[in-house]
Structures are given as structure tokens and as C-alpha cells.
Amino acid sequence: MEWKYILASIVYSVIGISILSISFWIFEKVTPGTLWRELIEEHNTALAIVAGAFMIAMAIIIGSAIHS
């Protein structure tokens, strides 16, 4: 293995995780209420499914964008 491929993988991983974190933070600010309180205190399963689906969808989009 060449070091440039390892370095490129690390850089793209950091960029992808950063973009995913920023997009989730925006998602939390746009939605009403506090996501953490709804998940932990209210045990809102539907919101947990939506948040998980959002994370998976954004990860697929970011991964596709970085791969191409």
C-alpha cells in the first residue's frame, strides 16, 4: 500500500464525518423542540427512526459525492 492512499482515505473520512456532523446539527436546529430531550426523556421511537434514517441518507449522499 502506498501512503498517499492511506492519507487520502483519512482526509476523506474526516471531511465526510465533518459534513455529516454539520448537517445533523442543522437538522436539529431546524426541527422544533430538542432532539436529545425527545429521545431520552420522552422515548420518542419515531423520532429516533427519523434521525437514524437522516444519518444513513446523508452518509450515503456524502459517500457517493466523495467517491465520484
Number of helices: 3
Q: How large, in whole angstroms, is the Cα Rg?
A: 15 Å
Low-confidence stretches: none
Kindly state the number of beta strands: 0
* Range of strand content: under 5%
Q: What is the 3D shape? A: elongated
Structural class: mainly alpha
SSE topology string = HHH
Residues in helices, as a percent range = over 70%
Oligomer: single chain
Terminal CA distance: 21 Å
Task: Please explain how this structure is put together.
The structure is a single chain. The chain has a domain at about 30-68. The radius of gyration is 15 Å and the shape is elongated. The chain has helices at about 5-30, 35-40, 45-65. The mean pLDDT is about 85. Helix 1 runs antiparallel to helix 3. Helices cover about 85% and strands about 0% of the residues.
Quick structural summary:
This protein is mainly alpha-helical. It has helices spanning 3-30, 35-40, 45-67. The chain has a domain at 31-68.
Characteristics of this structure?
0% strand, 3 helices, 84% helix, mainly alpha, 68 residues
How do the helices and strands line up, and which of them pair or pack?
Elements lengths: L2 H28 L4 H6 L4 H23 L1
Helix pairs in contact: 1-3
